[in-house]
UniProtKB/TrEMBL annotation, chain A:
It is a multi-pass membrane protein. The keyword Cell membrane applies. The keyword Manganese does not apply. This is Monosaccharide ABC transporter membrane protein, CUT2 family. It is found in: Cell membrane. The chain crosses the membrane at residues 12-34, 54-72, 79-97, 103-125, 132-150, 170-191, 219-241, 253-271, 278-299, 305-323. Keywords: Cell membrane, Membrane, Transmembrane, Transmembrane helix. It comes from the Bacteria. One of its GO terms (cellular component) is plasma membrane. GO terms for molecular function: transmembrane transporter activity.
From TrEMBL, chain B:
SUPFAM superfamilies: Periplasmic binding protein-like I. This is Monosaccharide ABC transporter substrate-binding protein, CUT2 family. Gene3D superfamilies: 3.40.50.2300. GO terms for cellular component: cell envelope. Residues 1-21 form the signal peptide. Belongs to the bacterial solute-binding protein 2 family. Keywords: Signal. The keyword Signal applies. Residues 26-272 form the Periplasmic binding protein domain. The keyword Signal applies. Pfam families: Peripla_BP_4 (PF13407). One of its GO terms (molecular function) is carbohydrate binding. It comes from Thalassococcus halodurans. It is found in: Cell envelope.
């Protein structure tokens, strides 16, 4: 039996195991500071509970990290997503304020996000500017563009359809949760049930060889930035709809960093190559669970960033290759119930790679 | 639209002196468009100047001190009668203020103070952030009238001076009233989105029915929190009393709708007292006090919030 070196992983479960464990620990921390954390009831026509909040408040970062995972898999990075959120929110708000329907507003916002993504893709794939610099342009300029759209104020609206995208519910479940779950499933399906995922990984591992092998890397690169822009636009619409207003100064501020962090916590390498969107989404939930611990702990806000930094440092240390090696060595030196040569050989081969 | 007028205004300010027929020419160096309040301050300053027949030369610094210094130098070169500055940072003003002093042009600081010798400027017109918090606290003391009240607090950006001062002021306001207790206090970063998120966690951690009042360091956070309270199935303004600071138009709208109880105004009219002081000084040499405190007016449902909203909504907030 030969094992494929790229393409679908033999076991998705094994891949996301570390993230599931960390998420469980983060949720346990929540229970430790607030015993009723898992309590969910039905109030005012919607599910009401801390767990729902984690899923709901994690939506923007979850949406961003879907696109970000693909971009990072190509060895790129997209710093502009926070600013694109602000632009998309502003465009959506301006469209409904102008009297159009929420559908038009959503389309306009997606169009704006798509254009931003194409711009980034053009800079990276065609002009060959390094991704971190190329997307920095829009990160800095984007918020200015958003302010031009909102004319420097918080543009409020009361279009029920648009508000539903951020603050509404479908069958009691807050809409943002359904949106990020659906988009996550759609994109995962799209890249894993086709060769797309493998082609994206190939670009990230070695772009030149992938091109020599016949992959149209330029088009694919533009496409991943386009997807990232669209994800950011959706996140921006949700954030604006949630507060019934487009806040160009603050919408999505620093969220690009949270999105990158989610991808990293998801065990994806910033050097590109293999990726797992599911793991990134778990990373986003881990970050939101940590935010939830901080809010529920009742500690003074001066501690917020320190606690977050310490927890994330802990997560990254546990995930580091060196510590991973130690854990493996510890396991290997322990008593083995059934000395099976086949089981032993495989990890050794992996460690040697 | 705003951008164009800003460009135009800066072009006028930096361009050569045109002989205007106005009695008095005042230069105004504004920080830039960092918030709705700042936009309103610019609008009100222009209105106040127009009301007095003053020719106002406006310069937008785009959040950069070097632009402000350039603008002040150009005002000096144009020989204006006085200069208004909303300083973007606290330090680094000595040299340019000395140049203004040498040219005998009085400078008035708006909204923020600076670390420089007091003799370098005529006066500073600012609000008292601690006082604002105290007014909010005292309002709640009167409102509760001895009844027990568990308060949650939405702080501004951690470490910022408005957050520190408004927190201290509120604590002073409720000091000595054992019936009032702040049970949770967390930062909402002065934004609607964070205000809503943090209020959601307050409602769960304490239980909505156990919270009697919310004190937010600005109106934006309160507006976000109102939505969170509604989504939790409670009535903001009734089940949970809400007091915040700034008096932005949306706060008046919320009070008019009965969803908020009180707001304390951070007036955008810093220019009115500043121009009064300048006019008096130029006319008779009357030295104003080094600090002019603006009024921190309390607005409640007793005011005609609908009318105030309509008046304020076009100021650029």
């Amino acid at each position: 039996m030969t094992q494929p070196t790229v393409g679908p992983r033999p076991s998705v479960f094994k891949r996301i195991m570390p993230q599931l464990v960390i998420l469980a620990v983060a949720l346990a921390l929540n229970v430790a500071v607030f015993p009723e954390f898992f309590h969910i009831d039905f109030r005012n026509g919607r599910l009401f509970g801390n767990l729902i909040d984690v899923l709901n408040r994690g939506a923007p970062v979850a949406l961003l990290c879907i696109g970000m995972t693909l971009v990072i898999a190509t060895k790129g990075i997209d710093l502009s997503v926070g600013a694109v959120m602000a632009i998309a929110g502003a465009v959506a708000a301006a469209t409904v304020v102008d009297g159009h329907s929420w559908g038009t507003a959503l389309l306009a916002a997606l169009l704006a996000g798509g254009l931003c993504g194409l711009w980034n893709g053009f800079l990276v794939a065609v002009l060959r500017i390094q991704p971190i610099v190329a997307t920095l342009v829009l990160m800095v300029a984007g918020r200015g563009i958003a302010q031009l759209v909102t004319e420097g104020k918080i543009l409020t609206f009361d279009n029920a359809g648009l508000i539903n995208l951020g603050a509404g519910t479908i069958a009691g479940v807050p809409t943002p949760i359904l949106i990020w779950l659906a988009l996550g499933a759609l994109v995962t399906f799209g890249v894993r049930r086709t060769a797309l995922g493998m082609l994206i990984e190939a670009i990230g591992i070695n772009e030149r060889s992938s091109r020599l092998a016949g992959i149209n890397s330029r088009v694919l690169l533009v496409c991943v930035y386009l997807v990232s822009g669209l994800c950011a636009a959706l996140a921006g619409v949700i954030v604006a709809a949630d507060i019934k207003g487009a806040d160009a100064n603050n919408a999505g501020l620093w969220l690009e960093l949270d999105a990158i962090l989610a991808v990293v916590i998801g065990g994806n390498s910033l050097l590109g190559g293999r990726f797992s969107i599911v793991a990134s989404l778990l990373g986003a939930l881990i970050i939101q669970s940590i935010n939830s611990v901080i809010l529920l702990s009742g500690l003074p806000p001066e501690f917020n960033l320190v606690i977050k930094a310490l927890l994330i440092l802990g997560i990254l240390v546990i995930q580091s290759p060196r510590i991973g090696n130690y854990i493996y060595m510890l396991r290997a030196s322990g008593p083995q119930p059934q000395p099976d040569p086949l089981v032993r050989q495989r990890p050794e081969k992996e460690a040697a790679q | 639209m705003t951008f164009k007028t800003t460009l135009l205004a800066s072009a006028i300010a930096i361009g050569p002196v045109a002989a205007f027929a106005a009695d008095m020419t005042i230069g105004f160096s504004q920080i830039g468009s960092e918030s709705g309040w700042r936009a309103a301050e610019t609008t009100v300053t222009k209105q106040e100047a127009e009301k007095r027949g003053i020719d106002l030369k406006f310069a937008d610094a785009q959040q950069k001190q070097e632009n402000q210094i350039k603008a002040i130098r150009s005002f000096i070169a144009q020989g204006v009668d006085g200069i208004l500055v909303a300083p973007v940072v606290a330090t680094g003003w000595d040299e340019v203020l000395e140049e203004a002093a040498d040219a005998e042009i009085p400078v008035v600081l708006l909204d923020r103070t600076i670390d420089a010798d007091e003799s370098l400027y005529l006066t500073a017109v600012t609000s008292d952030l601690v006082h604002e918090g105290r007014v909010a606290g005292e309002w709640l003391v009167n409102e509760m009238n001895g009844a027990d009240c568990r308060i949650v607090e939405l702080q501004g950006t951690t470490g910022s001076s408005p957050a520190i001062d408004r927190k201290n002021g509120f604590e002073q306001g409720i000091a000595g009233h054992g019936n009032l207790e702040i049970v949770r206090s967390q930062t909402g970063d002065f934004t609607r989105a964070q205000g809503k998120v943090v209020m959601e966690s307050f409602l769960k951690a304490e239980g909505g029915e156990n919270i009697c009042a919310l004190y937010a360091h600005n109106d934006d956070m309160a507006v976000g929190a109102i939505q969170a309270i509604k989504e939790a199935g409670l009535k903001p303004g009734e089940d949970i009393k809400i007091v915040a600071i700034d008096a932005v138009p949306d706060a008046h709208k919320a009070i008019a709708a009965g969803e908020m109880n009180a707001t304390i105004e951070l007036t955008p009219n810093m220019a009115g007292p500043a121009l009064d002081a300048l006019e008096a000084y130029l006319a008779s040499g009357a030295m104003p006090a080094k600090w002019i405190q603006t009024e921190s007016k309390l607005f409640t449902s007793a005011d005609d919030n609908e009318a105030i909203f309509n008046m304020k909504k076009d100021l650029g907030y």
